[in-house]
Design a protein that fits this description.
Helix content: 25-40%
Shape: globular
Strand order of the largest sheet: 3-2-1-6-5-4
Order of helices and strands: HHEEEHHEEEH
Mean pLDDT: 90
Strand content: 25-35%
Number of helices: 5
Length: about 140
Amino acid sequence: MINFSSLYDNEYAHGQVKQLMGQKCKLTIELTDEPCAWINACRITGLRYILNRQSWSWLLAYLRDGKIDDFRVFPLQTERIEDFQMQALKELIRTKCNVFRIPFLREVRASVTLIAMFPYGRIKFKIRLTNNFMDYLYDNNIC
């Protein structure tokens, strides 16, 4: 089996993201469980950026405060983070971030779409629909 993650130039993607941050672009980030972020901005669409814990913190610092300092961010380091989207979402809810659920018809969709809003962009989550997850959202007033 070929591991495409090892063939991907994540350092180049990191540089592109940093350049967008330097231009103060508003980023739209779609997370996956890989962990990976698909980044869209005014000048670029569908940039794949493989995340580790440091790069995730770096992206959040930019979205919240516009900080672009990437000291101690090593884009070539990979790590497996189980259920990354759920962990990231719960972290944002715990820190009282503005998270909104996109309305849907329950009979039609197998996932829930949520958006976290920030001054410098937004993060889009698409998480598998379960009763436990819906109860978690209701318990946290994300209806």
